[in-house]
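Input (Serine hydroxymethyltransferase):
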Amino acid sequence: MHQPTIPTLTAADPELAALVEGEAKRQHDKIRLIASENYVSRAVLEATGTVLTNKYSEGYPGRRYYEGQQFVDPIETLAIERAKALFGADHANVQPYSGSPANLAAYLAFLRPGETVMGMSLPMGGHLTHGWPVSATGKWFSAVRYGVRADTGRVDLDEVRDLARKERPKVIFCGGTAVPRTIDFPAFAEIAREVDAVLVADIAHIAGLIAGGAHPSPVGHADVMTTTTHKTLRGPRGAMIMTTAEHASAIDKAVFPGLQGGPHNHTTAAIAVALKEASTEAFAAYAHQIVANAKALAEALTARGFDLVSGGTDNHLILIDLTGKKVAGKPAAQALDRAGIELNYNTVPFDPRKPFDPSGLRLGTAAITTRGLTETHMPQLAAWIDEAVAAADAPERLDRIAADIAALLDGFPMPGYTA
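Output:
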């Protein structure tokens, strides 16, 4: 049963309530390995469902365009101060609706249409909003892209420097959506200073690891940090931008009135709750356990003949190249989903296949770590992944794995659900 319970919703709209309950059970019964997903605490769930959703609050604390902000202003201020303290940033904006608008704010703050931005290529692990052609960021700006070395699967910073010197971008993005290795923020900062570019660190995937001390921080190196507030940070679906004092005003103006109107106050409150949770010693232990689980799973997968991009992981994320298994990513992901293992198919560097039918799988350990799984469970998880990928055409075997997984997970409580 969903927790908190939803009796009023059930009475008012039983059809929708049944779908919510079904999703809660699905999340409980499956090993969730999508690298951008997690479980929020019950406190975060409760904050997102409050009467704060009723209130409009265009502007910033103390400078609103609507009256009645006596409680909303302190809530947003609390979230801001907690973000600054947790990450050691000069300034924080907690209003962006999601990660993509947060990145768009950096463009609006520092670029004019047609000017040059440099980011990681999407097939190499970057994000759509780092200048990929199908995104507005690739259509409205002159985008140049760096990748990874074919022999190591890691960013070649000498190539990044050469490209930056040649193209002279005004903004450089580091970070991405499928980057399994530590981001060298000092090296990127040195390159950005050399070409007089603003360095934006997109830490959406690793924000929780940074908060917990399990990944180096870009503070002191990057001018701007953008992040979602879910993923490893284990908050609601929202975003933040943190900056040096120098760039605070430009970012705030880009978010409002540049890109959006009233913030979602229920989300802001839930972000404040998540940031408080992330400031604890328990969360720091959690962040380090995420990495320990990812490394153990990577080793177990390698032992079973899986080819991992860059040979392994330094964070929560693993990228598998299935070429050697002679199976494509999409059918493998679908088979794994039936087997009770949720992840996503993904392109891999230098992928010869199309994006909607790529060669890879992307997985992460943040959600299973929240459930309480440890390194001791990773060899069995790798065995299930191996068997499911090989048994894509054997539904009875996939169903048996799913039953075994559900039985295992019964012993690991899920925030937001009671069996």
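The domain at 47-278 is CATH 3.40.640.10 (Aspartate Aminotransferase; domain 2).
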